[in-house]
Amino acid sequence: MSSEPPVFISAAEVERLLPRASLLLPGLEAALCNFSAGAAGGVEQPLRAVVPVRPHGGFLGVMPAYSAADDALTTKLVTFYEHRGDSAAPSHRATVLLFDPRCGSLRALLMPRSAEVLCILGAGVQARSHYEIFTELFPFTEVRLWSRTEQHALRLASSVGGAVRVCGTAREAVVGADVIVTVTMATTPILFGEWVKPGAHVNAVGASRPDWRELDDVLMKSSVLVVDSREAALAESGDVILSGAEIFAELGEVLKGTKPALPEKTTVFKSLGMAVEDTIAAKFVYDAWSAGN
Ligand SMILES: NC(=O)C1=CN([C@@H]2O[C@H](COP(=O)(O)OP(=O)(O)OC[C@H]3O[C@@H](n4cnc5c(N)ncnc54)[C@H](O)[C@@H]3O)[C@@H](O)[C@H]2O)C=CC1
Ligand SMILES: O=C([O-])C1=[NH+]CCC1
Q1: Rounded to an integer, what distance in angstroms lies between the CA atom of residue 229 and that of residue 50?
Q2: DSSP 59-99
Q3: Tens-digit pLDDT profile for residues 148-207
Q4: H or E stretch at 16
Q5: What is the pLDDT of residues 211-254, one digit of tens each?
Q6: Are 221 and 198 in contact (CB under 8 A)?
Q7: pLDDT value at position 172?
Q8: How far apart are the CA of 284 and the centre of ligand 2, in A?
């Protein structure tokens, strides 16, 4: 058993040790399959506890997980604030604790076959990381970006490697897009089914509270709906709960092949974020850190 004091790995060091999020894909894919396999998969991940910080419009999420396949045990502590006095401050701040368990990818199966146009709604931290991984993995011919605050979209567009078209409205960005990523702090719909091309794929990443929305009922009800965790989607996702849309599968079931991917249909992947994803990422970073020390 380790009696070493815990190491502190800063955000800058995490970026050095994990230069591309795609390095996590094999581990994440296996973890999602294991999660959807139930007890046999060896993933212990209770629904996250979310503590409202009412006077300040914030939330504290506690996200523990253990993955037997990786023998890795973590918990993430993440705060997220809807309205912040200092608007330059990040809306989300997270710390992951990795324990010694002895004493303490995503394959893009939902991607349409000939995806040419990528649309990102939102221009924050998640917008940048989704831009990076989607353009690394797929040869889009056009990337469109919309943000409620156009300046934020212009700033993100000018700071990434490739060409990005900043659109004046969400509708302009969405119409005709093959893949649409929603990464906003919106609490009412910003993406409407009538704009979405049949056969498109939507990665819905924001709206992680039971009364928050990013997608309207038309889109939710007319799409094939895949979620990261059924239990979490039915407890935490306003888009799922308030639309009453039927869940077709967990992503882990699609990755395992027990449910089909249906790339010819309009698909929505509703992601809420899973603690076991942090478990895989934290172990990767810690192993890379250990190898260099
Ligand atoms: N599913 C998952 O695994 C995860 C989901 N998230 C969620 O993803 C979303 C984006 O997170 P970050 O990029 O870190 O946040 P951020 O604060 O860096 O960016 C938020 C973006 O949303 C825009 N926005 C804020 N209010 C809006 C509104 N009412 N309508 C339209 N746009 C609005 C902002 O201008 C900004 O472009 C959040 O909802 C967050 O909770 C975050 C981490 C993991
Ligand atoms: O996975 C995550 O860390 C979060 N999902 C929604 C808010 C924070």
Answers
A1: 16
A2: EEEEEEEEETTTTEEEEEEEEEESS-SSTTS-SEEEEEEEE
A3: 999 999 999 999 989 999 999 999 999 999 999 999 999 999 999 999 999 999 999 999
A4: helix 11-17
A5: 999 999 999 999 999 999 999 999 999 999 999 999 999 999 99
A6: no
A7: 98
A8: 19
Q: Which residue is associated with the tokens 């701040």?
A: 93
- The amino acid at residue 6 is P
Q: What type of residue sits at position 234?
A: L
The contacts of residue 78 (CB under 8 Å, 6+ apart) are 60, 61, 63, 92, 93, 94, 95
ipTM of predicted assembly, 2 dp: 0.96
How would you classify residue 207: left for phi > 0, otherwise alpha for psi between -120 and 50, otherwise beta? left
Neighbours of 75 (CB within 10 A): 19
Return the SS3 of 287: helix
Q: Is 273 in the pocket of ligand 2 (CB under 6 A)?
A: yes
List of residues 6+ apart from 264 with CB closer than 8 A: 112, 113, 199
Which tokens in the block code for residue 213? 């929305």
Task: Look at the block and give the residue holding tokens 């502590």.
Answer: 77
Regarding the beta carbon of 193 and ligand 2, being less than 6 Å apart is answered: no
Q: Which of 120, 126, 178, 110 is nearest to 148 (CA)?
A: 120
CA atoms within 13 A on the CB side of 82: 15
Q: Give the distance (Å) from ligand 2 centre to CA of residue 3.
A: 31
Per-residue three-class SS string for 131-158? HHHHHHHCCCCEEEEECCCHHHHHHHHH
CA distance 14 to 46: 26
Let me know how many helices (H) and strands (E) the chain has, helices first: 10, 13
On whether the CB atoms of residues 112 and 203 are closer than 8 A, the answer is no
41 within ligand 2 shell (Cβ under 6 A): no
Query: What radius of gyration do the chain's Cα atoms show?
Result: 19
Instruction: Establish how many alpha carbons lie within 13 A of residue 218's alpha carbon, considering only the half-sphere containing its beta carbon.
Output: 10
